[in-house]
Amino acid sequence: MPSPVMATIIPLEQPPRRRKTAALDTLAALVADDMAAVNQLIIQRMESRVAMIPQLAGHLIAAGGKRMRPVLTLAAARLCGYQGQRHIKLASCVEFIHTATLLHDDVVDDSTMRRGSPSANALFGNEASVLVGDFLFSRAFEMMVEDGSIDVLRILSHASAVIAEGEVLQLTTQGDSTTSEQAYLEVVRAKTAELFAAACRIGAVVAGRPSSEEEALRTFGLNLGIAFQIVDDILDYTADQENLGKTVGDDFREGKVTLPVILAIHRGSEAERAFWKRTLDDSEQRDGDLAHAQDLLRRHNTLRDALERAQHYACIARDALGLFGEHPVKQALLDIVNFTVEREF
Amino acid sequence: MPSPVMATIIPLEQPPRRRKTAALDTLAALVADDMAAVNQLIIQRMESRVAMIPQLAGHLIAAGGKRMRPVLTLAAARLCGYQGQRHIKLASCVEFIHTATLLHDDVVDDSTMRRGSPSANALFGNEASVLVGDFLFSRAFEMMVEDGSIDVLRILSHASAVIAEGEVLQLTTQGDSTTSEQAYLEVVRAKTAELFAAACRIGAVVAGRPSSEEEALRTFGLNLGIAFQIVDDILDYTADQENLGKTVGDDFREGKVTLPVILAIHRGSEAERAFWKRTLDDSEQRDGDLAHAQDLLRRHNTLRDALERAQHYACIARDALGLFGEHPVKQALLDIVNFTVEREF
């Protein structure tokens, strides 16, 4: 019988349910060899004498996903003219940190689906998800130590602390329909954008580029990440279930107060606010409530306006790349920004 | 109103329920000034704009406990003649890592009590415990990066990965009454002893001592940690509830297959093995089962013999200090070994 690790297949091709992925495909093609090396290293470094670790980690990693974060590290390093191999290990660290946060997220949200498959906690239990997340997180730091750059360690340890802080902040805004747009943005910046920013920034660090380029890539990643999360929150109300790879309406059912909802609350009547309070704050949800919520978002144009907010951050991300000269990777990164705000999943 | 952080009181004195703490008190007195600085730094560095983080972390840290791990780092540094201040920050990192694992442990075990108080997950919810654990863990790495020693980062990132691996391994042995003594020892070494070893070892690293002393302190910590955990597992069946600060019989109720039980299973009749299988593997527990389990442990002398096993590791720990000359801290560390195998809580 093959070992659990050998049985883990990490698909480089996106599964067929993905559409409109031309931008992702172009960037992925530019760093395809590097990404193959990352995938190999990921399999190798999630190995453990405790069989459940590669089984559980492999389940999540094999499920695919866009792998945007490690691709960003690889692309940023290439854009900065980096010729070595260190970016492979660091991109793997970024994916391990991301995977660890996904495992813990699913426990916190008590999710049953992730990327169109049963979530790890649904299959292996919350206990294992917590602990394997801890393992992947620790393993990421071990690998950074092997790399030896104290700058990279500083960037990623700080990002990890900010992510955890953002997740706790999100927990305190959950079920609170008085959450402000500013508080929402702070959660998004911390829980999502900070790792995008760090993933891009370490591409410049590993290439030994001046701090202006490091800062440009950080700005690119941060704003791309904010745009990405806002669109994610829009899609939770609008996506085609099959494309999304998770259940539409999850955020609503969990009482998450996201941008489309915040705008609808601000623009709504007293009766509408009572509806949001009942469904989100008091978790009293009945048949038809999700459809009514979707209707309110449409009626107040908050999905369209949330997307405009996302476009704002996308513009900042695009401009941040201005100081880099012409480069196929630069064009592909700009396309990724467009993809992020145009995607349907 | 004072901020949540200011309201957090971290007692330096042990609470009155502790007895037989002379050995701990002597060591604590030798590093009292350092430990006061550690406590101050802990309060300072668990600060966050997200109020729930210092509230939850403060709850656990204020609850006390023996603080053995940071004390070991401070003591090891002093034993190695270290005169600087870096050990303060590193001892705080060790306590943050330990606190993070406790928070995640309580979620995994679904505990309701910790150190005689309601556990953090019982008060704040599992979600918050997972995320604040992640925060403390990340914060520990940020602080190590500030310290700047790649050796310390290597030791503690490796220890963290081993701890997580050990916790997953424990999960797979739980409810499996065929667990071998060897598998039990591997769990104990990974989940408990590795951090004791790392805590002691970095005292030598920070002092820039030769690798022989680093290795001696690692050996001391590792074997002290194994002895400590074996005794912990004995006390779960024998302790005076009030002194223990947790519920007697927790391990039994959770189906944990610890050393006293493993020995009783090996020495027991078929009928007794059926009893252990029903209660631990199948989680079918009835009134009187805990008392019967305790009776079986006594009848087969497995509590006494488990303590003898612990004594074996205690001896190795004591001998490891042999290469250090006379020093009040050395004597206090030897006393701690004695305390560990003689304690009633």
General description of the model:
- Two copies of one chain form a homodimer.
- The first copy, chain A, is mainly α and 345 residues long.
- Chain A has one domain: Farnesyl Diphosphate Synthase.
- Chain A has 18 helices and two strands.
- The first copy, chain A, has helices at 4-7, 22-30, 32-45, 52-62, 68-79, 86-109, 120-124, 126-147, 150-173, 181-206, 211-238, 241-244, 250-253, 259-267, 270-281, 289-299, 302-320, 328-342; strands at residues 113-114, 117-118.
- The first copy, chain A, has a two-stranded antiparallel ribbon with strand order 1-2.
- In chain A, helix 2 runs antiparallel to helix 18 (328-342), helix 5 packs across helix 10 (181-206) and helix 6 (86-109) packs antiparallel against helix 10 (181-206).
- The longest helix of chain A has 28 residues, at 211-238.
- The model of chain A is unreliable at 1-19 (pLDDT under 50).
- Chain A binds chain B through residues 48-53, 101, 104, 107-108, 126-128, 130-132, 134-135, 137-139, 141-142, 144-145, 148, 150, 153-154, 157-158, 160-161, 163-165, 167-169, 171-172, and chain B through 48-53, 101, 104, 107-108, 126-128, 130-132, 134-135, 137-139, 141-142, 144-145, 148, 150, 153-154, 157-158, 160-161, 163-165, 167-169, 171-172.
